[in-house]
Amino acid sequence: MGVAFTRAVSPNFSNCELTHLGRAPIEPARAARQHQAYEQAIADAGLKVVRLPALDQHPDGVFVEDTAIILGEHAVITRPGAPSRRPEADNTADALSDRFTVHRLRRGRLDGGDVLRIGDKLYVGQSTRTDCAGIVALANIAGRLGHEVIEVPHDRCLHLKTGATHAGRDSAGRDVVLINPDWIDPGVFDDVFLLPTHPNEAFGANALRVGERLIYPSAYPHTAERLRALGFDVDEVDISELEKAEAGLTCMSLIAEEL
């Protein structure tokens, strides 16, 4: 059975880092309830949910994707772009060390939310949270593990996966990338079918593939219908409170389907 690693919402969640959104009132208790429903959706899709140790003093700790990249039997521990988040990566490294061969980035800045994997290709966003040195450091590790790193500069959203995610294969057998073309250049992707988000749903490009199911935010119904039209089994969940912290579905879990 595959595993999804998550971490609980901090009671200090309202003090999260923000880059592209203005600060709005956040109810940590409501965010925690939405996060639990998100975990249940992952479990319903067939994965075992394993919570990493809680980090109550770290407002962004729930965003575990930023702290590691799972590549088969290997876990690459990142160096988050916000210095306040570096201890989160240390905690993730300790928690994953008994299940994976752990590698650590030693230079630069890199958030896991900027890493989009499609097969053996890793598209890596260069952003306010991820710099060139971090991308080079990842390429040095990932290259030895058989993965090609492709740099994708962007500046209109927090992470690459805020504006583009791999939805999986549609009913025609095509690899589908869900994308907001106003934020991410469609020309960087090779040999995929590009599905644009609905024009009124700018934040609708972040979807989480779990087994045969696509978990998707309920706030973007028009884009959800586009996905269903391609044959995807879409399970919509409400993450509206979490989105106030620039959350996407992918950022709240580390998926290891091979375990």
* CATH homologous superfamily heading: L-arginine/glycine Amidinotransferase, Chain A
Tally of alpha and pi helices: 6
Low-confidence stretches: none
Return the domain count.
Answer: 1
Give me a quick take on this structure.
With 259 residues, the protein is of the alpha/beta class.
List the helices and strands and how they pair.
Elements: E1 3-6, H1 28-44, E2 48-51, E3 68-71, E4 74-77, H2 86-96, E5 101-104, E6 115-118, E7 121-126, H3 132-144, E8 148-153, H4 160-163, E9 164-169, E10 175-179, E11 193-196, E12 208-210, E13 213-217, H5 221-229, E14 233-237, H6 240-243, E15 254-256
Parallel strand pairs: 1-2, 4-5, 7-8, 10-11, 13-14
Antiparallel strand pairs: 1-15, 3-4, 6-7, 9-10, 12-13
Organism: Sphingomonas arvum
Protein name: Arginine deiminase family protein
Family: Belongs to the DDAH family.
Your description of this structure?
This protein is of the alpha/beta class. It has a single domain (3-256), classed as 5-stranded Propeller (L-arginine/glycine Amidinotransferase, Chain A). It has helices at 28-44, 86-96, 132-144, 160-163, 221-229, 240-243; strands at residues 3-6, 48-51, 68-71, 74-77, 101-104, 115-118, 121-126, 148-153, 164-169, 175-179, 193-196, 208-210, 213-217, 233-237, 254-256. The strands form five sheets. The protein has a three-stranded mixed beta sheet with strand order 2-1-15, covered by helices on one side. A hairpin with a 2-residue loop joins strand 3 and strand 4. The termini are close together. The model has no long low-confidence stretch (mean pLDDT 96).
